[in-house]
Amino acid sequence: MDTSYTSMKTVIISNRLPVKIIEENNEYTFIPSEGGLATGLGDVYKNGNSIWVGWPGIEVPEDRQQEVVEKLAALNLYPVFLTQDEINLYYEGFSNEVLWPVFHYLVTYAHYEQSYWDCYRSVNDKFAQTTLKLLNKNDRIWIQDYQLLLLPCILRTQQPFATIGFFQHIPFPSYEIFRLIPWRKELLNGLIGADLIGFHTYDDVRHFISTATRLLPVNSTANVLSKGDRQIVVEAFPMGIDFDKFSGLTTTQEVKKEIDYFKSGKNEVKFILSIDRLDYSKGILERLRALELLLQHHPEYIGKIELYMIVVPSRDSVPQYRDLKEQIDQLVGNINAKYRSINWIPINYFYRSFPIEVLSALYATADICLVTPMRDGMNLVSKEYIASRNQNDGVLILSEMAGASKELTDALIVNPNNLGDIMEAILVALKMPLDEQQRRMKAMRSIVEKFNVKHWVQNFILRLNEVKDTQKSLLTK
Ligand code: GDG
């Protein structure tokens, strides 16, 4: 078994490359982005001869593609160029209007358009063609997420002995939900081209195995599927965060200044934080309704609590996201109008993103972090809050539907559909004695610190090597 996880070339493939693009004076500049996945995989693709393949994030005219290829190659990144039509149909269409809602159990939001599916197939094929040109015989391939479900099988067909891992960042639904998709068998056949398939939780693993064995001619023993002489291992790899980064940020001068600013004049007010991308899976409306319920039934907290709610713009060309934004605006407006006073407002609502330093100061200042998604593969915000609590105080309220709830059992766990449950949890959090906060936070911090994003990457890659070694030894017997 290979013990050094960076010693062999890994080809990482994801929908988006980990870069921010700036286009100024007809010139492209690419800045490596520092999202969770990019940080975790940094040790892999920034070192040695490993590479990352993906869409650069904008439509690049044909006559400028060579320039982009050269600039990205300097960062070990290789672009798959997509047209605006492809982005509309493959990404916004099939990925975000079929797979995203169905995998998050919101089946009535799905649009089963044949044109979306046709384009999803052809774009997965495009990713395969770019990858095959860059691939050498012994390379290890690691595919990320639901936009590329067909890619494992396309690559396997071309390279029968390739080492292929796949990780899905969003939930895998139960069979009864997945079976609704018209192209269900094609999707599953695509995925089982991989040697190792990873999900955040054991529940996702269970759902995938039961779905695959019901819909495909495969057998399963525990968490291994077999098809002919091929074996496919399916396991849980709960993703972590860069603990040191979030813990360290709160001690920098810049963040300390922001923390002082947030705290000034607010000694009597408890501060509740919520941070999400705009998405119907995140339970934003329900969270607001729970806060409204609290203000209605516990008027003693009027003037004593404030919610800071950051909603990061996302997918706003999809109609359901636009509707959701309007509903949030309206509900926030109603609650604030009803309960605010001249010098106090219950909800400080921001529809934009902030620099990481502001985020860090918010995490470090918030007495309570309220994370109540209807469904979430993992939810990294909950882990970032914990990593930012260097004094071991603060309370995390966490939905049982988030993958993170399986690890962070010392949070106050709630059912996000039960507004009374969320309200009660906020009341418990507001009154929780410091020693209890510290006991819970310490336990969660040690988990988030140990199972960080680098641990996640290393674990997946080592397991992929191990699975492949076992397969090879079975084939030579
Ligand atoms: C998908 C799955 C799974 C947010 N606001 C700002 C900002 N953020 C960053 C957070 C966090 C990330 O965005 C959000 O991550 P989540 O995990 O909470 O959610 P998704 O985006 O839906 O991610 C999810 C994840 O993939 C990983 O597998 O956990 O279940 O849905 O890192 O910090 N960052 C900055 N400014 C903001 O205003 N800089």
Automatic annotation (TrEMBL):
<dbReference type="GO" id="GO:0004805">
    <property type="term" value="F:trehalose-phosphatase activity"/>
</dbReference>
<protein>
    <submittedName>
        <fullName>Trehalose 6-phosphate synthase /trehalose 6-phosphatase</fullName>
    </submittedName>
</protein>
<dbReference type="GO" id="GO:0005992">
    <property type="term" value="P:trehalose biosynthetic process"/>
</dbReference>
<dbReference type="GO" id="GO:0005829">
    <property type="term" value="C:cytosol"/>
</dbReference>
<comment type="similarity">
    <text>In the C-terminal section; belongs to the trehalose phosphatase family.</text>
</comment>
<dbReference type="GO" id="GO:0003825">
    <property type="term" value="F:alpha,alpha-trehalose-phosphate synthase (UDP-forming) activity"/>
</dbReference>
<comment type="similarity">
    <text>Belongs to the glycosyltransferase 20 family.</text>
</comment>
